[in-house]
Amino acid sequence: MSIEVIFGQQLRKIREERKLSQEELAFRSKLDRTYISLLERGKRRPTLNTIFALTAQLDIAPSELVRMVEKNLDI
């Protein structure tokens, strides 16, 4: 599985645990809802700015999200 797909899976998991819709997360992080959807489906690569914007609204450290992705990589 690609890093983008794993990132998207982890992002969706955290978002759903926080009981946020894609729309609410997008609004809070000042991103477009369709971009959140593309990230969650592994269709886009997030920038560092995007990761920081998302994690600030999900109440998780950026490094923790990256760690979660790293744990799920088949390397």
UniProtKB/TrEMBL annotation:
Pfam families named in the record: HTH_3
Gene Ontology MF term list: DNA binding; DNA-binding transcription factor activity
Keyword DNA-binding: yes
GO cellular component: cytosol
Keyword DNA-binding assigned: yes
Coiled-coil ranges per UniProt: none
Alphabetized UniProt keyword annotations: DNA-binding
Taxonomy, superkingdom: Bacteria
Stretches assigned to the HTH cro/C1-type domain: 11-65
InterPro entries, A to Z: Cro/C1-type_HTH, Lambda_DNA-bd_dom_sf, TransReg_Diox_bact_type
Matches recorded under PANTHER family: HTH-TYPE TRANSCRIPTIONAL REGULATOR (PTHR46797), METHYLPHOSPHONATE SYNTHASE (PTHR46797:SF1)
Protein name per the record: Helix-turn-helix transcriptional regulator
